Amino acid sequence: MDLLTDPEEKIMCPYNPAHHIMRKRMNTHLSKCKRNYPESKLVECDFNVNHKVPEPELQYHHENCPDRRKIEHTVYHEEGVPINKFPVHNIEVQADESWDSYDVPSYDPVKYCETNVVIRRMDVASAAVRKNFRMEERHRLNELSINKPIPSSSIQPQQSNRNHPGARRNLPEIPRGTVAEDTPESVAEIMNRIVIGKDKAFIPKPRAGQ
Q1: How far apart are CA 30 and CA 45, in angstroms?
Q2: C-alpha–C-alpha distance, residues 31 and 44, integer Å
Q3: Model pTM greater than 0.85?
Q4: Angstrom distance (rounded) from CA 131 to CA 78
């Protein structure tokens, strides 16, 4: 089937003009419909099995069959002539180095973990084996921490949180019994009337006539 044709397109059956079948199902339909017309003298095209024509018209159909071009292009194609109109040429790139020629030892993860500060654990073992493994790991990490101390450049000093929104601010303390200069008069009067007793501070009620 040609790629440019629509497989959903309905075409007429050569045995019965009343049958309109989709192009992609025509081959199955012809094999069944042919049994209902045994007296039909239609012959099959050499280029497409779905083409059924009367025998006297077969030669004319072969000369003008739309599928003849595809068959002839495949049969009479010259060797060495590329079919692709836009071929991709292979470009050989010469490289001086080869990554496979270097003698580099392979990476061993077990050896790396044993010689570096890596926390390991053992899950699938008995309780005694796991206990011995934990003791050996503590001893190994202690030796590595002594032999490989942490550089001072990696330790950052703890910064103050004064600029943090929730940090407590150091407000200036105002001595008891004094009033700031920019305090409103109504508040200043209340502050001057406060009487500090032994257990509590209170504002005395104004006397009658004051």
Answers
A1: 13
A2: 12
A3: no
A4: 79
Half-sphere exposure of residue 16: CA atoms within 13 angstroms, side-chain side: 14
Please determine, for residue 204, whether its predicted confidence score (pLDDT) is greater than 90.
no
Q: Of 51-65, 95-109, 195-209, which one has max mean pLDDT?
A: 51-65
C-beta separation of 30 from 16 below 8 A = no
* Type of residue numbered 198: K
**Which among 193, 196, 191, 197 is positioned nearest to 178, based on CA atoms?**
191
pLDDT at 14 over 70: yes
Q: How many CB atoms lie within 10 A of CB 135?
A: 10
Question: What is the spatial distance between Cα 30 and Cα 21, in angstroms, rounded to a whole number?
Answer: 10
The CA distances from residue 170 to 160, 179, 180, 181, in Å, are 14, 19, 18, 20
**Regarding predicted confidence, which is higher, 35 or 194?**
35
Q: How many residues belong to the chain?
A: 210
